[in-house]
Amino acid sequence: MGSGDDTGDPVSYKALAAGTPVMTSDGVELGRTERAVENVKEQIFDGIVVRAGSELLWVDAPEVARIYERRVELTVDAATDATAVGPYEPGAPEFSANVRAGRIGRFFGGGWKKR
C-alpha cells in the first residue's frame, strides 16, 4: 500500500483529517474518522473515534495498522471487527467552547458546553 494506490502517503495520527475512510484488513469500510485520541500524559497515540452511520465507535491503537493521508487501515477484518471495535465511551466528559454564550453567560459558567 502507499501512494501508488490512492491512499496517499503515511501520516502521523496528529495529521489525520476528520472524514478519512477507515477500512478493515479485508477492504470493508467501517466508517469515517471523527478524530484521533492521544494519551497526553504519556504522549502516545491512544486510538481513533470512528463515525459509522449515527453511532461513534472506538478503535484502540493496537487495531490500527497504518494511517495514510486518505485512508486508515485496521488490523482486524470485517468478521472480527464487532469484537475488536466497540462503542465510543469517553472516560471523562469532553467540553468545547460555547461561542454563543455572551459575556454574562461566560461569567456564570455558560462559556463551555458538554459534547
UniProtKB/TrEMBL annotation:
It comes from the Bacteria. This is PRC-barrel domain-containing protein.
